[in-house]
Design the sequence.
């Protein structure tokens, strides 16, 4: 295949992905409670900024969408097409992401750190119990009696496939099926973990879900910057806290206090209280400083990725524990009210001249 043809194919793939991402955002407009139009002055401010940092104008639908959701205007919002097709592939090596995204290997990447333990793993169809190879029969036998454990796919995100189960004499309490049947349903590449017992102040936000901090970090040379932090809160009776699964996201200030509003699925905006009745504004996240230092320390161990999304829980004893990390993280722009915050210009300028690992020039 000629170089010219390869370039053409790359351009077509990029164009199709950009069109899809644009459609994903624009179709959400109809669910907004209010649609705010950008003024001429605001449009000029946005385009002047992007012309100065990347040398071209950008589509404005992203700015209008987030401005409509939270009422906050910012020239620093980043269109999903620009972020996912240009900035993120320049920041992170897309060829390596699939391996690092497999949750079955998270513990191996961070020896000596407080990482949630997967006592049973299925990797490419092979079973491992406490990292020792076992047969399927032995894996089933070891899982006959378990109280409140999490099972989830190792290569999925956004809470897909996550279940909280209790097993007695090989039978799952929820549906009466056997643990062997459940393993067959998941087929391969999944894991089991004991449920993390979270700090009482985190459980108060919603006791049925593990309410985690999503911390977005950026490595610049020998410095790790915290772009933003949000807390993700599950809804009443739900196990998952992900916004895409119906949970809420609320920004966290530098001193660990929650913002006034939370945001859920499109149309579930400006929520001021949790389902448990806790007022969000000013609520203190326990051990927030520890969580930030924890994330910074971990980021240095992943030199192929400049932007990482970390899901961190706070245990009963106040210690942060890593649940998982994401090398293709989305941006919580509704809750945060910006793209990459105060570091937006710096990060874009640092990344823009790097090679695109997904769509090479």
Sequence:
């Amino acid at each position: 295949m000629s170089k010219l043809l390869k370039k053409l194919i790359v351009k077509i793939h990029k164009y199709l992905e950009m069109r899809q991402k644009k459609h994903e955002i624009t179709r959400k407009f109809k669910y907004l409670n209010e649609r705010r139009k950008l003024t001429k002055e605001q449009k000029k401010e946005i385009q002047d900024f992007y012309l100065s940092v990347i040398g071209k104008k950008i589509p404005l639908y992203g700015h209008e969408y987030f401005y409509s959701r939270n009422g906050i205007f910012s020239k620093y919002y980043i269109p999903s097409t620009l972020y996912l097709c240009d900035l993120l592939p320049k920041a992170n090596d897309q060829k390596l992401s699939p391996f690092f995204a497999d949750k079955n290997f998270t513990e191996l990447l961070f020896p000596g750190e407080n990482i949630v333990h997967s006592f049973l793993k299925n990797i490419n169809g092979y079973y491992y119990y406490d990292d020792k190879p076992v047969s399927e029969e032995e894996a089933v036998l070891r899982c006959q009696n378990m109280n409140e454990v999490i099972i989830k796919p190792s290569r999925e995100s956004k809470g897909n496939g996550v279940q909280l189960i209790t097993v007695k004499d090989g039978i799952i309490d929820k549906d009466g099926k056997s643990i062997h049947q459940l393993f067959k349903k998941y087929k391969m590449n999944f894991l089991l973990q004991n449920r993390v017992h979270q700090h009482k102040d985190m459980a108060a936000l919603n006791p049925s879900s593990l309410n985690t901090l999503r911390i977005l970090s950026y490595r610049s040379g020998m410095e790790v910057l915290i772009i933003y932090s949000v807390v993700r809160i599950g809804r009443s009776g739900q196990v998952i806290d992900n916004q895409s699964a119906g949970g809420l996201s609320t920004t966290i200030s530098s001193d660990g206090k929650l913002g006034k509003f939370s945001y859920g699925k499109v149309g579930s905006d400006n929520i001021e209280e949790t389902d448990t009745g806790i007022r969000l504004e000013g609520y203190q996240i326990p051990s927030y400083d520890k969580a930030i230092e924890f994330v910074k320390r971990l980021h240095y161990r992943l030199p192929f990725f400049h932007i990482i999304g970390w899901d961190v829980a706070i245990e009963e004893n106040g210690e942060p524990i890593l649940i998982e990390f994401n090398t293709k993280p989305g941006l919580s722009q509704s809750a945060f009210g910006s793209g990459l915050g105060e570091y937006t210009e710096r990060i874009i300028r640092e990344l823009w001249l790097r090679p695109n690992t997904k769509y090479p020039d």
Residues 227 and 341 are 6 Å apart (CA to CA). The mean pLDDT is 92. The longest helix spans residues 3-26.
